[in-house]
Amino acid sequence: MKRWSPESSATIKKQIQKRLEKRQTIRELYKQKSWKTLVKVASQTKGLYEEYDTIKVQGQVICVGDSVQINSGDQHDEDYVGTIKQIISIKEPTTAKLICLCRIQWYMRKSEIIKSQPKCSEWISEQELFITNHQEYILAQSIITNCKILSCSEYQELDEIDSTIYFNRLEWDLQKKQFGNMDAIQQYCLCFQPVNPDRQYIQCDSCKNWYHFECVGIKNGTYDKNEFNCRNCQ
Ligand SMILES: [Zn+2]
Ligand SMILES: [Zn+2]
């Protein structure tokens, strides 16, 4: 049996003090929205941290691995898009309120890319996304809805397009502000650009290459002759 001693009382006091400090830290981190540090601190504290495979947001079940549209706040008109890597709940110890966070891998949209690469505006589709290696925690409540991210060829085969269907073919390096794997992308037309599914193309009957209507002088978006031969094949 342990006997009371002034030293052990001091140790207990120290432990209580430490626990109180931790509760205070978590509360402060929550107020400051320092999610990354909050996750780190809470994951080291018993009973405050839990991970999940799914979560219910706005009446929808969302799983780890799903892609989602995320509310970007008041400053931007466009929603953000990302893929969920982790779902975490943290108990805020002073109020016992649950803070639900998701770790997100971000995609960039056309509007972001053309700020540093304005020339790419012609071939980037409105529904195109660029995968980044940037991950971040967000509040689960800022998720708007599930969305789909297809490959470029899958996207081109769709009969109907809606605003929750995107495609991805390229990586975006956030530090260097450039594409990661541009060499792997096929270029088309006389203007030598990657295909933009938003634009109209015509195939040359001889060389089978694809050309923009505008680049081969087809006006009004229609071509009524039976055969089309490009400048190189005429
Ligand atoms: Zn062209
Ligand atoms: Zn041709």
TrEMBL record:
Top-rank taxon, per record: Eukaryota
- Location of the BAH domain: 60-183
What are the PHD-type domain coordinates in residue numbering? 186-234
Q: A single Gene Ontology molecular function, please?
A: chromatin binding
Q: Does the keyword Ubl conjugation apply?
A: no
Q: Which UniProt keywords apply?
A: Metal-binding, Zinc, Zinc-finger
Signal peptide from the UniProt entry: none
Pfam short name (any one)? BAH
Its name, as the record gives it, is PHD-type domain-containing protein
Organism of derivation: Paramecium tetraurelia
Q: What is the lineage of its organism?
A: Eukaryota, Sar, Alveolata, Ciliophora, Intramacronucleata
